[in-house]
TrEMBL record:
GO MF: calcium ion binding
Coiled coil: none
InterPro entries, A to Z: Cadherin-like_dom, Cadherin-like_sf, Cadherin_CS
Span of domain Cadherin: 2-44, 45-153, 166-218
Organism lineage: Eukaryota, Metazoa, Chordata, Craniata, Vertebrata
CC terms in the record's Gene Ontology section: plasma membrane
Membrane topology: Single-pass membrane protein
Organism of origin: Liparis tanakae
Name of the protein described by the UniProt record: Protocadherin Fat 3
Gene3D superfamilies linked to this entry: Cadherins
Keywords (A to Z) from UniProt: Calcium, Cell adhesion, Disulfide bond, EGF-like domain, Glycoprotein, Membrane, Repeat, Signal, Transmembrane, Transmembrane helix
Amino acid sequence: MLDRETKDSYWLTVYASDHGVVPQFATIEVFVQVEDVNDNAPLTSEPLYQPSVPENSPRDVSVIQIQAQDPDSAHPAATDRLNYRIISGNPQNFFTVNTRTGLITTTSRKLDREQQTEHVLEVLVSDGGPSPRQSTVWVMVQVLDENDNKPIFPEKVYQVKLPERERRKKGEPIYRVFAYDRDEGPNSDLSYNIVDGNEEGKFFIDAKTAVVSSRKAFTAGSYDILTVRIHNQLVGLTVNIF
């Protein structure tokens, strides 16, 4: 079977002779050009694309360009008119693809990593031949985190009751204030400090663990109201002594 993509031409030598007592012969060279037909689907440069894009990206941010070639290079229609289309994985239209260049970009819909960390797109590439051939490729878009979420305290106010003690061990833990951040990596690192209610220096808080400890003894019936800050988020902590 002739395959233009394997060999596109042949030089043949044709030999002819007669049947005389002294045979006479002649030769001729024949050049055969194999014509192209659209029998190959487009091929992408990669079997799988794995780009990344920051969440909250504005419109028209480049994600990746799908590069494809058509082995039927002698067929102008098949070569110059490759068509790209996203056929699955994009129900909310976060992405769009240039049908001629294969460039995938963001749309006006904002990506949110906390809602979806990855988008798996299926892109169809088709040629422009008389009987179009097509192939598909997967594009796995990772959404990169940005610091767009505030830390969250599960409770607005915490109440702690402690027994009266004349003496307390220096730095004795009394409570741990817990908070979390929906971002990831360094964007989710938290730091705590007491910003109000600790004028007498009775308490201190570990900036990393959020463990509140006492420095002094307490008398029955006393109470303190502390305000703990974490990255501009405030929470109240009431300490009652009985």
